[in-house]
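Dissemination and training. As part of the outreach component of the grant, students in the summer workshop were shown how a complex can be specified as a set of sequence lines and then modelled as a single object. The example used during the hands-on session is reproduced here so that future cohorts can follow it. Participants entered these lines:
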Amino acid sequence: MSDKTVLIVGGGLDGVHAALEHADAGARVTLVEKFPTLGAERIPRDRLISPEQAFANPDLEKVRNHNNIQILTYSDIQKINRVDGKIRTQILQHSLLVDNSKCNGCKACIRVCPVNMYNDFDERLDFRTAIDFANPATGKYNIYREDMPVCQATCPVNLDIRGYVGLIADGKYLESLAKIRERLPLPGCIGRICPHPCETACNRQYLDEPISICFLKRFVSDVELNQNIEPVYETPEQKYPEKIAIIGAGPAGLTCAHDLAKMGYEHIKIFEALPVPGGYLWVGIPEYRLPKKLLQREVDLICNMGIDIQYNTRIGKDITFEDLQKEYDAVFIGAGCHTGLKLRIPGEAEYEGIIDCVTFLREQALGNLPEAKGKLIVIGGGSAAIDSARVGWRMGFDEVYILYRRTKKEMPANPWEIDAAEHEGIILQYLAAPLEILGKNGKVTGMKCIKMELGEPDASGRRRPVPIEGSEYIIDAETIVPAISQGTDLSFLSKGHNLKLSRWNTFEIDDKTGATNVPGIFAGGDVVTGPNIAIRAIAGGKRAAVGIHEYLRSK
Amino acid sequence: MIYEKEKRYIIPFDDVPSPRAKMPEISVDERKGNFTEVETGFPEEMAVQEARRCLSCRRCLGCALCLAECKPEAIDFNIPDQQLELEFDEVIITKGQENAFYPLNPRLGYRKYPDVITDLQFERMLSPTGPLNGLVVSPLDGEIPGRIAIVQGYTRDDDETHLLSSLILGVNQSGIALYKTTDLEVVLISPLCKSFQEQFFSHAEKIPRLQIIEGLPELVEKDSDIREPLLLHYSENGEQKQQTFDLIVILTKSKFSPEQESLGKSLLVQWDQIISMV
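and obtained this result:
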């Protein structure tokens, strides 16, 4: 008998056959299946059968009693990788929560269970209760118990949505807000700007439309505001002595600081390069979507926990990163993605009047932009492009264009943002790409563009835009805002910093703790994920707070 | 997570459709030249009404009603999950029981009409251990159908392997359904492949009450009344034809689930190439 070990993923017809084949050849086989039962009873697809013998599958009994086969049903492969020629796995076998050796199959449990859900084992042809047996002939009783509803599971910070929405339904608004704040220190901000992945997952959409979860969060935060209530974010009596530095007062940094203060850390200092807090929330999200006053109020609530923000302090310039490392017991990097990428077309470096979307939105937010004159062209299809255009429209440009090389359907911005821009009279030109920036006397005068058509799908599955020959045209404009994408600015790191970076120049961190490869240094938010949504940055801050706490307490 | 393939759960029947609350906004005129917040927030009444739309997705949260009812005391919420760390020399990834399939022609009405189902669903329906103990009924009204069409849902001319296996499955499913249900007629509509014609057609042809049409299904529709039978449009020898059916079964082409895909990709650099060849 050989000592070869074989893992077979999937306990369907193919998996059962493969298991028997290898086990009979002498290998030790482990058969892993997600469902609580194997399912090899299938109608053959390789030969015609007579109707009576349709589902007979003698292999199933054989595979169950084979000495060389270990069956792991109701199991997920959580990790798999190659190490020294072996394949190493971590497998989670879910508990059935039922001791099937005691079960007499009376089905009394099924009769009382109030839960009703589609039965995936039967391809959604019927319903099951939470306690059930997948297949009467072969199945074991199991309870499908979930940790959280689908909205909560989808939310990056796992807000108890069902809980706080229910409290609103009962008229308990402040209790609802308190529930949100258990996990989220910026409810008023997030309740306005979140693209709400929870709503995309909401089960109500199968009946009519998803619940408006995000705006309900805003509603309860408005209630508190309108009643002039000044809440206090509590900190515990017991304090910890360690000093923690946080780079960046954006959503990730603020949340990390908040969570650490809530655990009892009292020496937390946030270093912020800008004169204002909030990071991209202040200098990237325009005022008409998120009033600064409101953002300031929620930042103040966090600062009142004893957190100090030192503004106008750029790491690497005003203080070196090494000094920070020496002076503090732990450092969290939440520096965001504040560099706008270039178009890389002729004329871009020559003329005045080209300003990337990050700079454009930031300088507008800080009140540093000159008066709007003439026409504005924004290039790109993401949220930052829409924001730049809508800001430009408010600033008073005569005409505002958005140029996007695919169609509305492929646009990465949220559909409601695109609608709002159209509604405000912004001119959206789809299937158009910039070729060259034109200018005179050192100033931008317009842009040469080309029309595109959609060709074959590319690696992302979207159809690749291809230029239509001879379709060049010119738009006159005095200002051009590229909103292609954003990148990190890691110039604050000293040379030879040893921190592990990805090829996108973002930090590589541990999934569970937010720790970088250098002990004591943690990272989270856009500086890890690349340009992403605020709630995900907040999740990154929360994760690092837990990681930092574990790190400091085990030191 | 299992049982979440479609992320659909039962909605209480007494819950009637009600549209989602629409966020009030200031007008476009009011926005010009200033940065006033566009969205003004839900008024209280609207917020409460919106919150009441939440279905509280009822799933097992450990209410323990079953526990109280279980006489042999077999139910135990404290039985822990098992975490295993295992090492292998070889891994074989099979499609498992998730039964993912390539997208179907949306014009065939799957998920639009309850009486249009996949071959995978039909297989569960025919199974003696399935939800209906092998009874053939329409999911629309629970009636026993008089006419069933089994139609090809994935068609690429060069995909002989898929055509052959799905045709055999279609014939086998027809055979079982006809055996179980008297007075039933089954029509199988699909492009035929050479190997099927050579090896299986003559046998399949002899099955009573089964008609095999070499053709292409194009559209499934219904009158405004959902209880009406389904109208199937198809082409046969370049000619447009139509027939009515009580149940339509679509033959699918299986594929690896996203989870299995990522498993494969993490182990095998050439995964995509290999999969594209299968």
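The CA atoms of residues 192 and 218 of chain A lie 6 Å apart. Students were then asked to discuss how this feature might be tested experimentally.
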